[in-house]
Specification:
The structure holds two protein chains of two kinds. By secondary structure, chain A is of the alpha+beta class. Helix content of chain A is 32%, strand content 27%. Chain A has a five-stranded antiparallel beta sheet with strand order 3-4-2-5-6. Chain B is α+β, with helices and mostly antiparallel strands. The chains are: A alpha+beta, B alpha+beta.
Chain lengths: 169, 147
């Protein structure tokens, strides 16, 4: 179980790791614990999976990743495990999820995100994926993002900073 | 952004070590000095190329919840509905997409039972049906973009 100090650490850490030589010592100072304790607590939080990743979040539009496709497939339920396994092998697939269908109106269940620098390339990658994973007879749609209205990091406390971003892409 | 910046960005997407001097460790792997790395990281953040430096939490294990939801917005109401949805503090991302379901957003709450409430709120404020698409299973999350 995580305790009060862990919770404080989680809140502080979410503002970002300080870019100073000893960032964990700085957190320790703020929490009145030692640097070693901070390191050991964060390691535990990672180990139990509360922290999925400690790293850097890039602004994908600033790196010219403007073709952001959400590809949705209507994969027969009994094939989902097998097909998703294949799909995840491709390094241009950034995310892959199973989600519920909504009747005939929305019959798609497998979602893959492909982030690319141009649509043409993304569509080529998708064609390759469909061919390689035996998806040629499966219904699918490609939803490119047209505009990002809002993007902020996922959060722990619900009312964190709100960043409103308008950017075409 | 030069080749060194690109190298830094690509490397850091693998994660930041949890040790006394994490930037020192990274700089050694990159063949840079810690001072240079720190200066460059600050600049990359300032310029907005890196949007954040820190943890990605597991929302559900945190006691919270995440869902993906979509609405079909009539073209003439698009901006108005976008404004309503963006104003909800629980909405983390909101994208216009080329489909009849043309607005897709992520709802993130600190308590799992709040998702339904947020969806009801959005439906009430917009008069539109919200299609809730919570994840049933996550197969892969390896969002790593090469600079």
């Amino acid at each position: 179980m995580i305790d009060y100090i862990d919770r404080q650490l989680i809140t502080l850490l979410q503002k970002g790791l300080a870019i100073v030589s000893r960032p964990y010592a700085l957190l320790g100072k703020q929490l009145d614990i030692t640097e070693d304790e901070v390191i050991s607590r964060i390691s535990t939080l990672k180990q139990i999976g509360l922290i999925k990743r400690l790293g850097v979040i890039v602004n994908h539009r600033r790196l010219n990743y403007c073709a952001n496709a959400m590809v949705v497939f209507d994969v027969p339920d009994h094939l989902v495990e097998q097909i998703s396994g294949h799909v995840c092998q491709f390094d241009f697939v950034n995310l892959c999820y199973l989600r519920p269908r909504h009747g005939e109106e929305w019959s798609y269940n497998l979602y893959c995100m492909i982030h690319g620098k141009n649509r043409e390339k993304v569509l080529k990658q998708l064609a390759h994926l469909i061919h390689s994973c035996g998806l040629t007879s499966v219904n699918y749609e490609v939803l490119f993002s047209k505009k990002c209205f809002k993007q902020r990091s996922a959060f722990y406390n619900a009312n964190l900073e709100q960043e409103k971003v308008f950017s075409d892409g | 952004m030069d080749e060194v910046d690109k190298k830094i960005i690509n490397h850091l997407q693998n994660g930041i070590p949890v040790c006394e001097s994490p930037y020192q460790a990274i700089s050694e792997e990159l063949g840079l000095t810690e001072t240079v790395l720190i200066e460059r990281l600050k600049l990359l953040l300032e310029k907005g190329i890196l949007s954040r430096f820190g943890p990605l939490y597991h929302a559900e294990k945190m006691g919270g919840a995440l869902t993906l939801a979509a609405v079909k917005v009539p073209q003439e109401r698009f901006e108005q509905v976008a404004d309503i949805i963006n104003l909800m503090p629980e909405v983390a991302h909101n994208y216009a997409r080329n489909h009849e379901l043309n607005m897709w957003f992520v709802i993130a709450t600190d308590q799992s039972n709040k998702i339904t409430k947020v969806i009801q709120d959005i439906e009430q404020k917009t008069g539109l049906s919200v299609y809730n698409m919570p994840k049933i299973k996550e197969y892969f999350v390896g969002l790593k973009l090469e600079a």
